[in-house]
């Protein structure tokens, strides 16, 4: 493992030297490449930085991806085919559910095998294969963990030191044994403050204090092992709700030492009925998140592709229009955000969102993210 860490650092030094002398640029497929000559610039598609164009691959996507309960040979072939397909759809970053529910898709010292991925203990290491195949297609691979989930209805008490220690052990196990590019947490921290819910009476201020301590510990754990590894969080898109379950957004987005990026889940359209009135809820919440970002943390927006084409009595836009996703991408780019992430990968190939997907594919064929000063 020390060798892997050393290679990362050596590579980073070489890349920095090359950038300083202006000989390479960051390509759209996630790799540094030689700067194209003027003669080739018109035909080179990877000569500028694309923003993050990512997907979450959740435990609910395993079957659709052809990854559930397969032999090693079939799993490997299906993983390769799936990442190849995602790459064709412009995806350059994958957030893969490796610890869905107090279980793991890899041989863990602390967790049982995930029954969402396997019927019984496999004879191969799925995570090793997945990261290798993602990198084959020049995609960045982040290990996605549900930090506190014990069962689908219960969590480990975040206020206990043992809960934080458990999370750190899992993070260490992954980064020390696998060629992942980062650790990713989703939007599950404390439960909602609904009476009767687990830990519902813990105050918001205490929740934030507890979660902050854990987040800082995970961040420092990741950076102490390899400063080039990333740690990021995807909070719920409704800011007040995210705060209520323990996300100290004001601190995370104004101070260093908490995370390398944030992915708010803004899963609404701009035709949302609120108190009987149709509102531009996506735009309103996008603006709210951008305003919160005081320390210019890289911000990618989680987009609800899964809602495309579906009828919703409150969120009218998904049924009425088929260009919601493209419009949202344009708006988040205009606001200076650094990319987007779809929930979830299966939605790219499901029936209901296909009109949205068709418009998205047409859009990405003709548009590239431009390199910003910060990213240089």
How would you describe this protein?
The chain is α/β, with parallel strands linked by helices and 376 residues long. It folds into two domains: 1-48, no CATH class; 51-366, Alpha-Beta Barrel (TIM Barrel). The protein contains twelve helices and 15 strands. A nine-stranded parallel beta sheet has the order 10-9-8-7-4-3-15-14-11. Helix 5 (161-177) links the parallel strand 7 and strand 8 (182-185). The longest helix has 22 residues, at 204-225. It starts with a helix and ends in a 10-residue tail after the last helix. Mean pLDDT is 88; it is low at 6-49 and 371-376.
What order do the helices and strands come in, and which of them pair?
Elements: H1 2-20, E1 24-26, E2 32-34, H2 38-41, E3 52-57, H3 72-88, E4 93-99, E5 103-104, E6 112-113, H4 126-136, E7 140-145, H5 161-177, E8 182-185, H6 204-225, E9 230-233, H7 239-244, H8 249-252, E10 261-262, E11 265-266, E12 272-274, E13 277-279, H9 281-292, E14 300-303, H10 317-320, H11 324-334, E15 339-342, H12 354-366
Parallel strand pairs: 3-4, 3-15, 4-7, 5-6, 7-8, 8-9, 9-10, 11-14, 14-15
Antiparallel strand pairs: 1-2, 12-13
Helix pairs in contact: 3-4, 5-6
